[in-house]
Q: What sequence folds into this?
């Protein structure tokens, strides 16, 4: 089964520096098949027979042991990621894939949390929650967005990491290739 492993907070500034070639080598050494990375921000596509939660635990353990980093990890299967792309609830408004973000959550947020997040959207910003994903459109970018600041922070109460739409669709293509 193909898995997409998303590491939170990798290679953003001086903290949590992680070499993608070294990561691939360590994951292969730990028994994962065909680990491939995308960009430098902690995106891995690999094959393994285990369930996503177990894959995440094993990847996190490898990173802790080999790189002395305690990183949060979110995993989706290839089919789960394909469903995220098919769902695309903001496709009619999100015209710039670099300003369209998907936050991948370890578990769904409750309705009150989603409503509080949605209330932070300003102007043309949009937020749609669908299961364990939050789709967010930031037409004016994320620099001054209160919504993005909350989504990117650690205050959601669940493990979460976001990728722009270009990265999401590229990871699906890698999983299919």
A:
């Amino acid at each position: 089964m193909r898995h997409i492993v998303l590491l939170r907070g990798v290679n953003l500034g001086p903290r949590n520096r992680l070499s993608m070639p070294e990561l691939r080598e360590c994951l292969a050494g730990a028994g994962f098949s065909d680990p491939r990375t995308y960009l430098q921000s902690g995106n891995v596509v690999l094959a393994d027979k285990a369930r996503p939660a177990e894959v995440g635990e094993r990847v996190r353990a490898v990173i802790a042991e080999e790189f002395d980093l305690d990183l949060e990890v979110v995993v989706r299967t290839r089919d789960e990621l394909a469903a995220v792309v098919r769902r695309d609830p903001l496709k009619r408004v999100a015209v710039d894939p670099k300003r369209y973000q998907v936050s991948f959550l370890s578990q769904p947020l409750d309705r009150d949390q989603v409503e509080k997040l949605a209330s932070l959207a300003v102007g043309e910003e949009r937020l749609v929650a669908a299961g364990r994903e939050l789709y967010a459109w930031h037409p004016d970018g994320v620099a001054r967005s209160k919504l993005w600041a909350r989504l990117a922070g650690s205050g959601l109460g669940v493990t979460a990491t976001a990728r722009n739409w270009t990265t999401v669709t590229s990871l699906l293509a890698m999983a299919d290739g």
Remarks:
- The chain has two domains: 2-78, 86-164.
- Residues 2-78 form a domain with the Alpha-Beta Plaits fold (CATH 3.30.70.1280).
- The radius of gyration is 16 Å.
- The chain has a mean pLDDT of 96.
